[in-house]
Amino acid sequence: MAKHETPLLDQLESGPWPSFVTDLKQQAATKPECWDILGILELSFKDRITHWKHGGIVGVFGYGGGIVGRYADVPELFPGVEHFHTVRVAQPSSKYYSSANLRQLCDLWEKHGSGVTNMHGSTGDIILLGTRTENLEPFFWDLTHDMNQDLGGSGSNLRTPANCIGESRCEWSCYDTEEACYKLTMQYQDEIHRPAFPYKFKFKFSGCPNDCVAAIARSDISVIGTWKDDIRIDQAAVKEYIAGNYPSNGGAHSGRDWGKFDITKEVIDLCPTNCMWMEGGELKIDNSECTRCMHCINVMPRALRPGAEKGASVLVGAKAPILDGAQFSTLVLPFIPMSADNDFEELVEFIEKVWDWWMEVGKNRERVGETMQRVGLPTFIKVMELEPIPQMVKEPRSNPYVFWAEEEVEGGFERDVEEFRAKHAA
């Protein structure tokens, strides 16, 4: 395959950062189809439209997901990318790899595909970019039999679950994110590989409210570690921070000297609910007002720790802008235990209850957050058989009219009248 002139793409090599254009040119020495990758991208830059078209139904036998079909719409110009399918491979929990595993995977992709990889897709999958239809089955055979790895999710199904590093390396993690991710990935293999949902569905596991996998912004069910009791305080360490003997933020200052640590300016005044103050030389926290933002813990990690009664908050409905605008997930379960001993039973029951409702009332290509938005949060809460709490309220009510269900009005009104009469009769 001939080398193409790519003056527009070549500009991307002129900046201070490493360029994928340079990488593709190097790859073309052993994989000539990479010249056609550059050529078709140059044409897309010139025409300002994509020259890739979706491949429709293409995949491996028995699986409805894991392969994203792609074909060039100008194959006569770029025959090397006439077929250019993407393969999604499920990543290990927390993305821990051995060098031997990565080498084996790269060798496999050099054998069956273009050798071009993306580590990782936004969902977390290992993304292998570019192969022909006839190579899919041989690649899949080698992946599953030689490497004991599987495809991830694509299409209207459960996407590959993802998690933060959790208790393996992070002292703030409030539950075992790796075990939760692994257990639910194994449990829902059918939902990952055989699309049956109205649209895609993701759940992600963050061990603490720092939410290092951005679950609250992009997953249909966000499982975010939290604690139920009080933040643990080491008052002696607080004094050391104030005295300047411990570096704040774990010493992460990007090389800049910010001056002497000021607990009022850097911690207390930045608390979103003003629930912290100094009294008698000690740091005080009104834990009933704490929203678990993690700021104070991040700034003074030696002095403050999450509480001892740990679990997770479950939020529902985040997504990127597809049918509607982007939205964060909504708090639905403030606290549930997260024990691997019972296979995360409470979380599993909730997930399947959401699925049962969404698969019945959700429209085609409608994420669960959009279904919630369409029918209203009160309806969702009622279907989930949950008690509403103030934390579920997104913004103050702007509609002056209040609508009551008939069964709520009759019994509730009569009960209120009886209680009023009894109180004043006394």
From TrEMBL:
Gene Ontology MF terms: 4 iron, 4 sulfur cluster binding; dissimilatory sulfite reductase (NADH) activity; heme binding; metal ion binding; sulfite reductase (ferredoxin) activity; sulfite reductase activity
GO CC list: sulfite reductase complex (NADPH)
PANTHER family referenced in this protein's UniProt entry, alphabetically: ANAEROBIC SULFITE REDUCTASE SUBUNIT C, SULFITE REDUCTASE [NADPH] SUBUNIT BETA-RELATED
GO BP field: sulfate assimilation
Protein name (Swiss-Prot/TrEMBL): Dissimilatory sulfite reductase alpha subunit
Keywords (A to Z) from UniProt: 4Fe-4S, Iron, Iron-sulfur, Metal-binding
Tree of life domain: Bacteria
Transmembrane segments: none
Annotated ranges, domain 4Fe-4S ferredoxin-type: 281-309
Alphabetical list of Pfam families matching this protein: NIR_SIR (PF01077), NIR_SIR_ferr (PF03460)
Organism, scientific name: Desulfopila aestuarii DSM 18488
